[in-house]
Amino acid sequence: MSLRSSKSLHRSRSGAVFGVCRGLAAYFEFPVFWVRLFCAVLIVFTGFWPGLILYVLAALLMKPEPVAGAGPEKPAAARPSREDFRKRLADLERRIRDMEDRVTSREFDWERRLRHRP
Question: Domain locations in the chain?
């Protein structure tokens, strides 16, 4: 049982419908064909709706497979520090203030009126 402890049950991102069958096949190490056949038989023999509801419920409850290459969070050195954030915020505030000064100035008002004369 220690083999399964390292794996977790996920929906496959490359599955046919929701990835439930491919995720189950990967988890239990069965061929995906047999898992899909079992699901199809289950849907047919339960009167269609109960089996289909069970399949959709499994798709909603299973987490999607992690994206390939998406590892753990970035190391602290790669993340912006609070000081970087404060510098960017101060720069943004300065730029907004400059823009407000420009838009509310008399020269801007005169230029706007001259450009839009009837």
Answer: 2-64, 82-115
